[in-house]
Amino acid sequence: MGTQPTPSPESGARPCPPDPAAGGDTRHALFHAALAGTGTFVWGWDLDSDRLSDIDEGLAMLGYRPGAIGHTQEDWNRLIHPEDRAANHEAYLRHARGEVDVYEHSYRIRDAQGRWRWVRERGRIVERHPDGRPLRMLGTQTDITELRELADTAQQALERLARIARHVPGTLVQMRVDRERRVTFPYASERCRALFGIEPAELARDGRALLDCVEPDDRGPLRAAIRASARTLEPWRVEFRVRRDGELRWVRGEATPRRQDDGSTVWHGYLEDATERRELEQARQDAAVAAAANRAKTEFLSRMSHELRTPLNAVLGFAQLLESDPIDPPSEGQERRLKLIREAGEHLLQMIGDLLDLTRIESGGFEMRLATVELRPLADEALAMVTASAERARVSLTLTDAGAGAVVRADRTRLRQVLLNLLTNAIKYNRPGGRVELEIAAPAGPWRRFVVHDTGIGIARDERERLFEPFYRGRGVRGRVEGTGIGLALTQDLVVLMGGRIEVESEPGAGSSFAVTLPAA
């Protein structure tokens, strides 16, 4: 329908119903009445006279009274939305030029209340002049306002769904399997691009695009799960692998099926990347296995330590009895051998204790009794306990106290164990004539610090990272210095359990310094 004010072969056709009186029979009038009941009426346009027949029916549909406007195309054009007139006229011209068989267009028109309503017009030129110019045109007009509103509402709902789907950690899908088992995805949210590298429109055409990126070994079970769900109408739950940019990823899917009237089955659900979840589950399983192994190891070591300590204490006791037997004292050679037995037994007993402590810490079964501990008395006590070892190794011991009565919050027994381990190592890995200094540092905020300095062999830079690993003793000391490599690992764990930290500075050939920092009491 055109927008030109003067009718011409090129002017638009305003659909308006033909006059029932012109038809001349009752059946024609009934036909018009039936169409009017559906919001549709038939129109006719005489292009030579520019008369729109029965325009009053169109006006009535818009709420106008009869005769409210004239009967020409220009009269009707004044009601059409200004933005729609040009497109409406162009639709008519395409039909008038023979480019399309039928004139068809939808546009907005103002009703009697001033609201814009949507109408759809369809028509055809039914008579032409001998020179081909249009003479008469017939068609229909239908009020589609409610349909447009429904379409707009549906479109808004789709847009809302799309916005929500962008934030869902997966792909929302509608999957359809027809009677010939052809799979399509009428709907797939945008995240399918990231999950599969496939556009939603491609999945809507052919679901095989998704199946093609599934790992070959998983395609059979995936198809079987879909068939089983279609047969039983039970929810479809499955996990399968896909290859995306050369990387293998796990995908988890869950959807609910519904049988359609045409025999097809439609599922609504989602697909999500389950790789991290599976890795987390595997890590949890591995952790549970490791925890069980740790518990078993702890129980084993605990039992074995008791089983070993009993005969070992007996051996040490007999060695001490033989050494001090007043009736049959040992000879000088026997006394030397008994001393070696006693020292080896004491070393073995200490190693068993350290190993058991380390295992308990790893398993989380180690208890700390934290209290206020004065550093100076504990330092004097520890130095006294290692004095004999220092004298045998010809190493001097000194104490520097700048702590001014420093106190820490710690387990006194375990802190003494830390001090003894550090002092013993400083003596063992020193040189004849060397020095070991225990320094209680000045207070620093909420922390208190003590340092064990030595003038020993030092530690290479590339070995410091492994220094606190259990059973690691360094490249240059194996066999030269007695030990198992447990002491430093246990020392670090004890310090950490007391809320502190241990740090080391060392230079090969010049000595080492081990600093322990603990919270002040």
Estimate the mean pLDDT confidence: 82
Within the largest sheet, what's the order of strands?
Answer: 2-1-5-4-3
Radius of gyration: 48 Å
**Discrete helix count:** 15
Largest sheet properties:
5 strands, antiparallel
Structural class: alpha+beta
- Give the strand content: 15-25%
Label the overall shape: elongated
- The count of β-strands is 17
Compute the separation of the termini in Å.
94 Å
Helix content: 40-55%
Stretches where pLDDT falls below 50 for ≥5 residues?
A: 3-24
Annotation keywords:
521 residues, alpha+beta, five-stranded antiparallel β-sheet, 25% strand
Structural write-up:
- The chain is an alpha+beta fold.
- Helices cover 43% and strands 25% of the residues.
- It contains 15 helices and 17 strands.
- The strands form 4 sheets. The chain has a 5-stranded antiparallel beta sheet with strand order 2-1-5-4-3, sandwiched between helices. Strands 7-6-10-9-8 form a 5-stranded antiparallel beta sheet, sandwiched between helices. Strands 12-14-15-17-16 form a 5-stranded mixed beta sheet, covered by helices on one side.
- A hairpin with a 4-residue loop joins strand 1 (40-46) and strand 2.
- The longest helix has 49 residues, at 275-323.
